[in-house]
Amino acid sequence: MGLYYSEFVKSLTPDFFIARPFVLIIWSLCLLVGKLATLLKEPDMIFLLPKERQMTTYLKTAFKSSILIPFSVLLLVVGITMPLLVATSNIGFSDFYLLLLNVWLLKLAHLLIQLQNIYLNTEKKTKIEGMLLSLGTLGSIAVNLYIAPWMGLIISILVLAVVYLETGKVIKVNPLNWEKAITLERKRLKKIYSFINLFTDVPGLQSDIKRRAYLDGVLNKIKKEQGQTYNYLYARVFLRGTEYSGLVLRLTIIGGLALFFSDQMILDGIISALFVYLIGFQLLPIYSEFDYMLMTQLYPVKNEEKMKAVEKLLIKILMSVITIFSVIVMIRLQDKVGGAIIVGILLLEGIVFTKLYAPKRLKKLDKSLI
């Protein structure tokens, strides 16, 4: 992507008027990245209530800690978009620090409003300040991009000054809204865990179970007999739960898109092999899905059948993914011999993973549960 972006920027001229509106939108959206991280939990509302006066010092520390991630994101985004601005406007690389400082000041104002929001009787005030910040953000960035960076910086300083003064008044007068602060923190963590859950299993984050009656035909193909007990159970939990099926679907789509937009043999080989491994590795925890259910302990089924069922499920899923990746690779690569080599490597990887690597990992997982 960096290579394509670099070549794209080289072909641009000042007539490319879409660049600055695009950057305006990107910077404004990136200001929404990063929330105030208070790390408060439900028991704190009871046990920390006598220390509420001292919470001001703690929240100031939490505020400082909450700056790191959004500031880093803004640094990267402004840095990445600078070549686009230099190629299409009168902005130079020397203006980088002014532009970066501008968005940092706006982000500080955004976090200060969030800090006010966890105090009582601040709903109306934070809404008004939020509107002011939105207008100030658009105005400041627009002035930066179309007039002069230092003029936009003045607007940002004024917006931050107003928000800062109001925040000081709120902290001195208003008591802390514990319930709201805890609720907002829980929502913040849930968003982070939900994002991580797109790529891996997150313990404690409950997944949805869906009926998916249209997949009953797949389950009905598994014979209802003792030797197929775990084959049925693992197939059922994979098809009807979003934890594993959603994970496989997302990684397959991401890997497929990466392969579709690449026509380099070595890169395609690395991407496809990596995603096949990731999918297989993330499916291994399904082995212990029923370990804490009493009924499965009473089944007259040997533990070896359980491991074989997981291996059987893995080989079916991985071969399906490998088939999809192989079709994309053979379509996109002009070097069909190279594409065939990648397909062969993927097939070998799938067999080695399910027959050699997975059994060893599952045995270790089995021992850790004893």
From TrEMBL:
Residue ranges crossing the lipid bilayer per the database entry: 20-40, 61-84, 96-116, 244-262, 274-292, 313-331, 337-358
Keywords: Membrane, Transmembrane, Transmembrane helix
Single GO cellular component term: membrane
Stated name of the protein: ABC transporter permease
Source organism of this protein record: Vagococcus hydrophili
